[in-house]
Amino acid sequence: MGPFFVVRSRCAPGIRVTIAAIAPSRTPWEGIVQDNPLIKIALPIAIAVIMCGIGLTLRGSDFRRIGENPKPVLIGVLGHYLLLPSLGFAMAWLFPMSPEFAVGLVLVAACPSGSTSNALTFLARGNVALAVTLTVISALITFVSVPLLVNLALQFFAGETREIRLPVGQTILHLAVLVLIPVLLGMGIRRYASGFAVRVEPWVSKFALGFLLLLIVAISVAERERLPEWLSQLGPAALTLCCSAIGLGYLLGRISGLALRDSITVGMEVGVQNSTLAIVIALSLLQSPQIAMPGAVYGLLMYLPALAMVVLGRRAVAREEARASVSDIPGS
């Protein structure tokens, strides 16, 4: 366990007692993370394998180009930590819900991009090097964004504030195991076994898309008893938030003059969140299963607009490449 970033503030005693009283020692929402092997074991393994495959498509020059042109990174960070939290507060205010659910929705918006955002960006033919960069940056900013935004939400919706601590070492280790190490491994294979990488690369996107779809269906079936309750209580707000985040993130990139593939990446990074981290923070730090519920619902529903972006992004990039190839023909 590493050091902590801490935001200290006072808490209204009445509300603290109320929330603590409704949090049992072991909740159904805690079981989502701890007992479901699809989420606890299969999903991390799948992400690590997919990220290794993505590394096969990357070169060091891809990241050097980002360093030479930092504008897409700045736009991505702006979208993630200004646009997305604003949308989170707006959805929590517009849709009728309890204060705990409202705080949980803002908590989701305050968390970093999910590891699957890199795989989905790859499937949508976005800029994967930019996606990996934004995921790392958002994870580092999380140690400030979560305490500040969640305390603001607690004050606004519940009239209280809290002390929130995030384990720096544990979060960095989680990010390294799921994202950085597999990507570096794939890049190493690309460099030292290029023939193998070229043969495997065409199958990477097919495997990634098929595996993610299968996993989403399996998780939905495993949690089918809870799904109706989740969807009726939080589905509209969570789905609207994710659709708005991905769509407006993409538009932010286009309005800012980013290339098509960079704009697709910004949209995906803004909308696809680390909902598992939101659940863990709500249960372990805030001790509220109600605050954890939006993370569970968002983590499932976010794949609907994300997969829609995959389809639309691939078509848009294909059209752009077709136009570019036609313009390259002499006399065209």
Please explain how this structure is put together:
With 332 residues, this protein is mainly alpha-helical. Helices cover 79% and strands 2% of the residues. It has 15 helices and two strands. It has helices spanning 13-21, 28-34, 37-55, 60-68, 71-94, 99-110, 116-123, 128-158, 168-192, 194-222, 227-255, 260-271, 275-284, 289-301, 303-327; strands spanning 4-7, 164-167. The chain has a two-stranded antiparallel ribbon with strand order 1-2. The longest helix has 31 residues, at 128-158. It is globular. The N and C termini lie far apart (62 Å). The relative contact order is 0.19. Mean pLDDT is 76; it is low at 1-30.
Give structural attributes.
mainly alpha, two-stranded antiparallel sheet, 15 helices, globular, disordered N terminus
* Average pLDDT, all residues: 76
Largest sheet: 2 strands, antiparallel
* Strand order within the widest beta sheet: 1-2
Rounded to an integer in angstroms, the radius of gyration calculated over CA atoms is: 20 Å
Strand content: under 5%
Classification by helices and strands: mainly alpha
Our measurement of the CA-to-CA distance between the termini, rounded to an integer number of angstroms, reads: 62 Å
**Number of E-state strands:** 2
Give the SSE layout.
Layout: E1 4-7, H1 13-21, H2 28-34, H3 37-55, H4 60-68, H5 71-94, H6 99-110, H7 116-123, H8 128-158, E2 164-167, H9 168-192, H10 194-222, H11 227-255, H12 260-271, H13 275-284, H14 289-301, H15 303-327
Helix pairs in contact: 2-14, 3-7, 3-9, 3-10, 5-6, 5-8, 5-11, 5-12, 6-8, 6-13, 6-14, 7-8, 7-12, 8-9, 8-12, 9-10, 11-12, 11-14, 11-15, 12-15, 13-14
